[in-house]
Amino acid sequence: MSTIPRRRAAPRPESITQARTGLSRDVRGRQRRYLVAMLVRTACVVVMAATWNRWPVLGACALVGAVVIPYVAVVVAQAGWRQQRGARHALVRLPDEQPAARVVLEPTLILPPEHNSAA
User: Fold this and answer.
1) How far from the centroid of its chain's Cα atoms is residue 6's Cα?
2) What residue ranges do the domains of the chain occupy?
3) What 8-state DSSP symbol labels residue 28?
4) Which site from 3, 30, 31, 53 is most exposed, i.e. has the minimal number of CB atoms within 10 Å?
5) Going residue by residue through the chain (119 aa), what tens digit of pLDDT does each one get?
């Protein structure tokens, strides 16, 4: 058995397990999930067309699947990024204080300076 020396001199990179996945990777994953859902919907339409006359219950179930799957696929695709944000911190409420006294501002008319033309 040969022994290979391990490098321990270099510092190990820090782990950032709380970080979100990159936006491009997230979008790619959502596109794949949406594509799979649309393929299943296409299969439902084919099954519905093939079984409508012979097995109407199966055709009706396939029709329901073909109608419901697009809605579910869009909701799942749009919810991906928000789920990875993590828990929101609770808002800190300040103790109730008396509101500051209101100051009533009176309208003021500002006139242009008078020019003395009697020179």
Assistant:
1) 43
2) 43-84
3) H
4) 3
5) 556 656 566 676 666 665 666 778 888 888 888 899 899 999 999 999 999 999 999 999 999 999 999 898 888 777 755 544 555 566 666 667 777 777 777 888 888 888 776 65
Nearest to 39 by CA among 6, 60, 69: 69
Q: Measuring CA to CA, how many Å separate 41 from each of 47, 54, 62, 110?
A: 10, 20, 9, 72
C-alpha of 58 from chain center: 36
Q: Could you tell me the two tokens for 64?
A: 């329901």
Query: What's the whole-model pTM score?
Result: 0.50
> Sign (positive/negative) of CA torsion 29, 32, 38, 41?
negative
- Tokens (6 digits) for 34: 């949406």
Q: Cα separation of 36 and 93, whole Å?
A: 46
Contact 34, 2 (CB under 8 A): no
What residue type is 57 in one-letter code? Answer: V
> Going along the chain, which residue ranges are E strands?
none
